Amino acid sequence: MRLVVGAELTALLQTDFAGDGAAVPPALLYRLCDAPGLQAAVQAQAWPAVDARFAGAASPDAYAVPFARSYIDERLRSAENPAQREFAGELIRNFTPCGSQFDHYLARLYANGEAALGDASDGSVYAVGMRTNDLNLSAPGQLPRRAFRAQAAIYDGQAQRAALDRIYDCFLGYYEQSAERFGAHNNDDVLPSCWGALRQATGRLLPRLRDPGLASQREWVAVAPLRPPAGFAVSGNVLVPSIPLRSHLRGAHPLPFEQVLVHPALSGIAADVGLRAFLRAKTLPSRVLR
Asked: Would you state the pLDDT for residue 253?
């Protein structure tokens, strides 16, 4: 029975719960950074994708985790029978983004670099536009599969809730049917597996749930499974485990720069001249826009 349950839940985890699995990222995606961040990325020949648990404002903790907690709490209050109350109650008690289902590296990229740069409150003064097809990322279902999975952020509150509904109803429904299929005496074995699968599906969704007020940024999040770090990035004066986001093309420059947008607050001709000189010195495209 356990093998059957495990195989069936694994198959259910392949479901496109957000309903947008065919979406493909745009030709150009932007990465935000300050001057030291740009210099560090060029020196390392890669952008750092950081451990999501230590990603600060980029972490799902900032918006997605509270949203998901509130959702599960609503499901607990609206439970219609003891089985549904048990299912929701245990989830809300053990819903933590520190579990293995939530461990991954992430890098936040933007289709609208100008809007993202205008909203930045972390000191970012550059939005670096990169050729998406050259990066070591791919959309779900897109071949060949690369190191990072790129998916569009979900900003609309109804769409966010609908995705959580599909996840929750899928695994709650599986649990409710299990008594008839496997016998009520096996419920204690099936229930933890359903909880684990639901947490895993939710963990994949959380990085995509973003504050509706930031919708103009049109963010794409690049996610990779957690593994031993290749290096460490500085975030808020803290060293954070990271892995590289760079070009997958051999023989090409590891950073597929196309252009750099400069924040209006960084005024003066010297700022543009210095940036162009830096890019040329590193044999990178020196197209600078304001």
From this structure: 85
| Total tally of structural domains belonging to the chain | 1
Give this prediction's pTM.
0.91
- Enclosing H/E stretch for 262: strand 257-262
| Tens digit of each residue's pLDDT (9 = 90 or more) over 123-148 | 899 999 999 999 999 988 787 889 99
Question: Which residues, 6+ apart, have CB-to-CB distance to 119 below 8 Å?
Answer: 214, 216, 217
Angle between helices 157-182 and 187-205 in degrees, nearest 10: 160
Give the pLDDT confidence of 77-104 residue by residue, as tens digits.
999 998 899 899 888 887 765 555 568 9
What phi and psi values does residue 253 have, to the nearest 5 degrees?
-65, 135
Domain of 234 in residue numbering reads as 2-289
Q: Are 130 and 287 in contact (CB under 8 A)?
A: no
Sorted by sequence, the CB contacts under 8 Å of residue 269 that are 6+ apart come out as: none
167, 280 Cβ separation under 8 angstroms:
no
Other C-beta atoms lying within 10 Å of the C-beta of residue 24: 14
